[in-house]
Write a structure and sequence with these properties.
Elements: H1 6-10, H2 20-27, H3 31-48, E1 67-75, H4 76-100, H5 105-108, H6 114-118, E2 140-147, E3 153-159, H7 166-179, H8 181-186, H9 195-205, E4 217-220, H10 229-239, E5 242-244, E6 249-252, E7 255-258, E8 265-266, E9 269-272, H11 295-300, E10 305-307, H12 318-321, H13 324-332, E11 339-340, E12 344-345, H14 349-357, E13 362-366, E14 376-377, H15 383-395, E15 400-404, E16 410-415, E17 418-427, E18 429-433, E19 436-439, E20 444-447, E21 463-470
Parallel strand pairs: 1-21, 3-11, 4-5, 4-9, 9-10
Antiparallel strand pairs: 2-3, 2-18, 6-7, 7-8, 12-15, 13-14, 13-15, 16-17, 17-20, 18-19, 20-21
Helix pairs in contact: 3-7, 4-13
Length: about 475
């Protein structure tokens, strides 16, 4: 049978109650069957073209993200608590963005250093005084969560610009329904299939005034060479909207139009998967060939909605992240329901001294980094790498934060040797529109496939799992 490894069986008391039905299924599944299902999953993903590009790797321009057929399971009461914390946090993020581009009360109160915001490369000076529909800046948020061995969830980072990965959440569920229908027959797994419908409702709710009952939304992609192009195409298809590139759109009299075979068609909402700097060569990077000349003029005139809004990248910054407990309390008047990972701001001399003295014990990240790049995992790094990072910290401490290496919880994962524990994180997707806040149960679970590894990013060799919230 293809059950837990001996070490897992010896620690049976640590298996969470929600996992007991899964454990019985695993222990009753022949190894050959599990291997066959793993191959079937890979064939399914390969057939439908679920790939991602790895920048700077000419030998692996397109890869399949490894998929683990052992689901990650959350009990309904766990999810209910997470959902409340996610709504609180994303609400505070929207209030923070509305404030820093408005009255800047949190800066005047001294709770967040003004230079961290006003000198941030992602801060869009052009948006000061602007108000998107409903004062909603982040319509789609991806909040990365980790759980420790002490069974407490922490927010690892906030993704408020162009969060990715939801297509894998949806496709992972589809393949699991095909491969293990017997599990779904016996367990009450909360569905995620309504996400595209909820996303379209959110986009339509923030359409400009006068757009009518059926706003025209499009998904703007950088093109097929982007690492997430599969997701862009997948989502456009699921939403029933056009997938467009910059040259498919044009602006006339501060109104955005899409070129069609039947003539120009007005566009009301753009779900953009393009960073600010490339949106409009007349307003940002003049060398950009990916954006739409004049788009920002139409946006400023209130004739088109961009989701997410321009300037939301400030909230992705890991130095700003370190102030999220203060931000949540300032705007909600409540204590945060979800805690941050304790964070050392290397820009502060005392924190820098501590980090330099404890580098082999810490995880160090670039404040504007993503995808697992530009980070140091001290306990797993060779001495030379640690010394090189120390030099980077001394040269530009303001570019880094550091965190302890938490005792992260693990989930059972199918490996060559059997079902073994591997570290995971979770990215739920939070939708915010004038119609309210919506979250489908679960999210994207990413898994570090190497034994002992803490890096789950697909660009760094991680894989994904389906995430099940059980209703009973």
């Amino acid at each position: 049978m293809f059950g837990f490894e001996a070490a897992e069986l010896a620690a049976a008391r640590t298996v969470r109650p929600a996992y007991q039905p899964l454990r019985h299924w695993l222990e009753g599944s022949p190894r050959e069957l599990m291997e066959t299902r793993r191959r079937q999953a890979e064939l399914f993903f390969r057939r439908i073209g679920i790939t991602f590009a790895v920048y700077g790797d000419p030998d692996a321009a397109e890869r399949l993200i490894p998929f683990d057929i052992v689901p990650r399971i959350l009990a309904r009461e766990e999810w209910t608590a997470l959902e409340a914390g996610l709504k609180q946090r994303v609400g505070a993020l929207n209030a923070f963005l509305a404030d820093i581009y408005g009255k800047q009360e949190i800066l005047r109160a001294g709770l967040v250093p003004p230079e961290l915001v006003l000198l941030n490369p992602a801060f869009a000076m052009s948006q000061i005084g602007k108000r998107p529909v409903g004062d909603i800046w982040v319509q789609i948020a991806g909040i990365d969560l980790v759980r420790t061995d002490a069974n407490q969830f922490f927010v690892l980072e906030d993704n408020a610009r162009t969060p990715s990965g939801v297509s894998y959440m949806l496709e992972n569920r589809e393949v699991m329904l095909k491969l293990v229908p017997e599990l779904f027959a016996n367990l009450h797994v909360a569905p995620v299939e309504a996400y595209p419908e909820k996303l379209l409702e959110t986009l339509h709710s923030v359409a400009p005034p006068g757009a009518g009952d059926e706003p025209n939304s499009v998904l703007l992609t950088p093109g097929q060479h982007n690492s997430a192009f599969y997701e862009h195409s997948f989502l456009a298809d699921k939403l029933g909207i056009e997938l467009v590139e910059g040259n498919d759109l044009f602006v006339r009299d501060d109104v955005v139009y899409m070129r069609t075979t039947e003539g120009p068609q007005r566009v009301d909402v753009i779900y953009r998967r393009l960073d600010d700097d490339f949106l409009d060569p007349l307003a940002f990077n003049p060398a950009s060939m990916l954006g739409v000349p004049g788009l920002m003029s139409a946006y400023a005139a209130g004739n088109v909605t961009l989701a997410n809004a321009v300037g939301t990248g400030v909230a992705d910054d890991k130095a700003i992240y370190s102030y999220m407990p203060e931000i949540v309390k300032f705007y909600t008047g409540e204590e945060p329901l979800l805690s941050n990972v304790p964070t050392h701001r290397c820009r502060e001399p005392e924190a820098l001294a501590y980090v330099l003295d404890h580098l082999p014990e810490l995880v160090v990240k670039e404040v504007d980094g993503s995808g697992g790049y530009g980070m140091l995992v001290g306990p797993h790094a060779p001495r030379a790498t640690i010394e090189a990072f120390a030099a980077k910290l001394r040269a530009a401490p303001e570019k880094f934060i550091a965190q302890p290496t938490l005792a992260l919880s693990t989930c059972p994962t199918l490996c060559d040797s059997g079902v073994a524990p591997r570290h995971v994180d979770l990215r739920p997707f939070v939708l915010t529109g004038t119609n309210g806040v919506q979250i489908v149960p679960g999210g994207l679970t990413r898994v570090a496939l190497e034994s002992g590894s803490l890096v789950v990013n697909s660009s760094q060799g991680g894989g994904t799992k389906d995430t099940w919230v059980l209703d009973d």
